[in-house]
C-alpha cells in the first residue's frame, strides 16, 4: 500500500480562496505562467509545482529555474511589445425609474502598444518617412486611387502583423 505524501493532501488550501486567474504562454523554449494575485500566491504555486513534479517524475527539479517577477502595475514589455493595463469605464443606467442615478463599472483591459522604433522603421521602408520619423511628402501620393490606397494599407498591415 503506497501512502501519499502529506504535502499532496491539502485539507485547507488558502491559495484558491479568490477566483484565481492563470495565463500560460509558451514562446520558443521558454514557458511563462502568469498568476493573478499577490506574491505569496505565486510562491505557493511555485512550491506546489516543484513538489508535484518531484512526486510524479521521481526527479529532483531545482527551484532556481523558476523565477518570480512582479510585473509593474502601469506597463511592461514582452516580446518587443509594450503592454499597458488601462481602466475602461462603462456607464449603466436602469430604465425602470426615471430618477435612478447612473452606475459606473470599471473594467481593466490589457492594451498592447507596438514599439515606436519598429513602426518608424516600417514606415521608412515603405517610404512614408525618413529614419528619424519625419514625414516625406510625395506628389504621387495625392493621385493614388482608392484601390491603391487600400493596397498600400493592406501591405503595411501584413508587414506589421503577419
Automatic annotation (TrEMBL):
What InterPro entries does UniProt report for this protein, alphabetically?
Domain_X, Maturase_MatK, Maturase_MatK_N
Q: List residues of the Domain X domain.
A: 108-161
Q: Which residues form the Maturase MatK N-terminal domain?
A: 13-80
Q: Does the keyword Nucleotide-binding apply?
A: no
* Keywords for this protein: Chloroplast, mRNA processing, Plastid, RNA-binding, tRNA processing
Q: Does the keyword Mitochondrion apply?
A: no
Q: Which GO terms describe its biological process?
A: mRNA processing; tRNA processing
Pfam families linked:
Intron_maturas2 (PF01348), MatK_N (PF01824)
Q: Name one GO molecular function term.
A: RNA binding
| A GO CC annotation given for this chain | chloroplast
**Which locations, inside or outside the cell, does it occupy?**
Plastid
Indicate the principal place this protein occupies in or around the cell.
plastid
**Family, per entry:** Belongs to the intron maturase 2 family. MatK subfamily.
Briefly state the protein's biological role: Usually encoded in the trnK tRNA gene intron. Probably assists in splicing its own and other chloroplast group II introns.
Give the protein name, as stated in the record.
Maturase K
**Source organism of this protein record:** Sphagnum teres
